[in-house]
Structures are given as structure tokens and as C-alpha cells.
Amino acid sequence: MAFSHRIAALAAVVAIPLGIAATSFALTDQPKSPEVPPRVELDSGSPTPTPTRPAPTPSDEVVSRPPVTDSPASDDDDDAPDDDRGEPGDDG
After folding, report:
1. pLDDT, greater one: 47 or 86
2. Are 89 and 83 in contact (CB under 8 A)?
3. Average pLDDT score over the chain
4. DSSP assignment, residue 80?
5. N or C, which end of the chain is more exposed by having fewer CB within 10 Å?
């Protein structure tokens, strides 16, 4: 009797997922095959004209040097959190 219960359980373990997969496959829509147009037409316009003089490359551009200052580049008076508030410890 125990042997028949084991066979029934094994059959259920195999049959239930197979039944679900078969039902799912049967209920899905089959995709249509893509329709190919009978003829493909290309744009018959003339190609765009190439510019007579290409734009300058970055190596051709002239950039002026920044002005020389006596103060270090990291010295910025506007970055202090207590500027123009009149809080204690303000030097101004």
C-alpha cells in the first residue's frame, strides 16, 4: 500500500507541472509572422552638399590666457558661511 502512495505522489509531482505547461502553451497566442513589403523604395533626393571649409578642430582654436593674479586660486571671499550676516566672529 505504501508503494502505491509513493507512485501516486511521484505521478502527481510530474503530471501537475506538465499539465500546467501544456495548458499555458495551448492558451498562448501564436505570434503572426512578419509581413515583408513587396518592394522597398529608397529616398531619391540628392545627397546633402558637403561644406567647402570644415569647422575648425579644437587644436585650431586660439584661446587667450587667464589674467595673472597675486592671490591664490583657492582664496575666495564669497565661500565663507557667515558673510554679510553680522554674526559673531565676523571680521567685517
Report:
1. 47
2. no
3. 76
4. -
5. N
Distance from C-alpha of 56 to C-alpha of 74, rounded to nearest angstrom: 34
Question: Cell 582654436 belongs to which residue?
Answer: 61
The total number of residues shown for the chain amounts to: 92
Query: Global pTM?
Result: 0.31
d(CA 35, CA 12): 44
DSSP symbols for 47-58: PPPPPSSPPPPG
- Tell me the C-alpha distance between 73 and 67, whole Å: 11
On whether the CB atoms of residues 75 and 69 are closer than 8 A, the answer is no
Residue 75, C-alpha cell as written in the block: 582664496
